[in-house]
Design a protein that fits this description.
Layout: E1 2-3, E2 13-14, E3 20-22, E4 25-26, H1 27-34, E5 38-42, H2 43-63, E6 68-73, H3 80-88, E7 92-95, H4 98-106, E8 114-116, H5 123-132, E9 136-139, H6 142-155, E10 159-166, E11 169-173, E12 175-178, E13 188-189, H7 199-208, E14 213-219, E15 223-226, H8 230-250, E16 256-258, H9 276-293, E17 303-306, H10 310-313, E18 317-330, E19 336-342, H11 351-355, E20 361-363, E21 372-378, E22 387-395, E23 403-407, E24 428-432, E25 435-440, H12 445-449
Parallel strand pairs: 5-24, 6-7, 6-17, 7-8, 8-9, 9-10, 10-13, 10-14, 11-15, 14-16, 16-17, 19-21
Antiparallel strand pairs: 1-2, 2-3, 3-4, 5-18, 11-12, 18-19, 18-23, 20-23, 21-22, 24-25
Helix pairs in contact: 2-9, 5-6, 6-7, 7-8, 8-9
Bound molecules: pyridoxal-5'-phosphate (PLP).
Pyridoxal-5'-phosphate (PLP) binds next to helix 10.
């Protein structure tokens, strides 16, 4: 048995007969008993990643004399089981909808350990958040300050809130850019119009004027799949600047800063993920530098929170498909590309079509000595953009019936899945210690028809 390297989950092994097991469970047996496609989650891997973020940030914060809370960003993939793994590892849960919030509550996550995001929170979302006493609502606009304060007053509670700001730093992939102005829907800009207060400062002042609101902190989330931690530092400094401006204006020292998620992972062999220790050091040293530059030398640093999603659950998951039609196609340059069709596609992984995202795939039911050929893994949907893996080398004898696994689909796979073509969504199976545990049931055509009112 040999361990499989990045980007495969921690417990992925290729056995002597060439087939693959994860969490001690043979993928061939998993497919035979439950069918494909199916998302397979390596519980140990997900928990290790959760711990790595908690430990890295706790250590960096302790060294700087402050503390951290790590929120798992549920939108990457949330189920009752996953929420329980995360809280067992000392993480809290971030939600962004009624469904995510209800799932976290169903998993018995302590309400004070739950956050609620959203640029357009509904009345039922705000109501459930306030009634169940969740730890924080992250306010995203000036109208929302009023909406949440009014709802809190009507319920006779005090709402713990953060104000989400946009720092002008947009990060993703290898780059970040810093711009003075924002043209996107999230948060409140830190950029002040000529001589005036920034929308972010105006919102903070509005929060402080409402006794029904308790200002916990300031929030910034700069992007996703970030591999260069420098952007986090720039954002940290910008938010520290707002905190200082609030203190000058009102005497209130905002206790906490949340610097969001977006920690990048390796999708392909040879890619280097963002290291949690490096990200932690960059963020915390930027906070300390900013405090020094702002003349806050002796004051304690604010408490920190972060919200990793993809980097905790993404690499822990793979999608298991069965190969169907295999078709060699002549390309424009006169070479051949082999189109390998699988029994899922853009309905279970929209990211290649949505973002041009790249993935890695291997045959996991056997080994092969056939020379590799250039392949494109495609789905079964009625769209030529229904591509799962753009370009991957697979053994030339790839054939119908082979099991194919696509790596790093634990985040934004099932959570973004659709039922396009009325294809039911795959289930999710957790594997650990040789045991396979279904944690989300496979959808059936009967499930889809149950919604059809005839
Ligand atoms: C999406 C999101 C996250 C998580 O992002 P990842 O890239 O999955 O780490 C965290 N916080 C907020 C506010 C988000 O929108």
């Amino acid at each position: 048995m040999t361990a499989m390297p990045t980007p495969w989950p921690a417990t992925a092994r290729r056995t002597s007969d060439g087939s693959v097991e994860i969490g001690g469970v043979a993928l061939t047996e998993l497919a035979a008993s439950g069918g494909t496609p199916v998302y397979v989650l390596d519980e140990l891997d997900a928990r290790e990643r959760a711990r790595a973020y908690r430990d890295a940030f706790a250590a960096a914060c302790a060294e700087a004399g402050t503390e951290v809370d790590v929120y798992y960003a549920g939108k990457a993939f949330l189920s009752v089981a996953v929420a329980r793994w995360m809280t067992a590892e000392g993480l809290r849960i971030d939600t962004a909808s009624l469904g995510e919030l209800t799932t976290a509550l169903r998993a018995d996550v302590a309400p004070r350990d739950i956050g609620l995001h959203g640029n357009n929170k509904s009345e039922p979302e705000i109501d459930l958040a306030l009634r169940s006493g969740i730890g924080r609502l992250v306010l995203d606009s000036l109208p929302e300050v009023t909406r949440v304060a009014d709802a809190a007053r009507a319920l006779g509670v005090r709402a713990p809130v953060m104000v989400r700001v946009t720092t002008g730093v947009h990060a993703g992939g290898h780059e970040y850019i810093s711009t003075a102005h924002e043209d996107q829907k999230f948060g409140l800009s830190l950029a002040a119009p000529d001589g005036g207060d920034s929308p972010a400062l105006v919102a903070v002042l509005a929060v402080l004027e409402r006794p029904e609101l308790e200002l916990l902190g300031l929030h910034s989330h700069i992007g996703s799949q970030i591999l260069d931690p420098a952007g986090f530092g720039v954002a940290a400094r910008a938010v520290m600047g707002l905190r200082a401006a609030v203190a000058r204006r009102t005497g209130v020292l905002v206790p906490e800063l949340d610097l969001g998620g977006g920690f990048g992972v390796a999708y392909l062999p040879g890619e280097v993920p963002l290291d949690p220790d490096r990200a932690a050091k960059e963020m915390v040293s930027a906070l300390a530098d900013a405090a020094r530059e702002l003349g806050e030398g002796d004051a304690p640093l604010p408490r920190l929170s972060i919200e990793p999603g993809r980097s905790v659950i993404g690499p822990a998951g793979v999608t298991l498909y069965t190969v169907g039609t295999v078709k060699p196609v002549r390309t424009e340059d006169g070479s051949t590309r082999t189109y390998v069709s699988v029994d899922g596609g853009m309905s279970d992984n929209i990211r290649p079509a949505l973002y041009g995202a790249s993935y890695h795939a291997e045959i996991v039911s056997r080994s092969s000595t056939a020379p590799a050929v250039r392949c494109r893994v495609v789905g079964k949907h009625c769209e030529s953009g229904d591509i799962v893996v753009h370009d991957v080398a697979l053994p030339g004898d790839v054939a119908a019936g082979d099991l194919l696994a696509v790596a790093v689909t634990g985040a934004y796979g099932r959570s973004m899945a659709s039922t396009y073509n009325l294809v039911p969504r795959p289930g999710v199976v957790a594997v650990a210690g040789g045991v396979a545990t279904p944690i989300v049931r496979r959808e059936s055509v009967a499930d889809l028809l149950a919604l059809d009112l005839g």
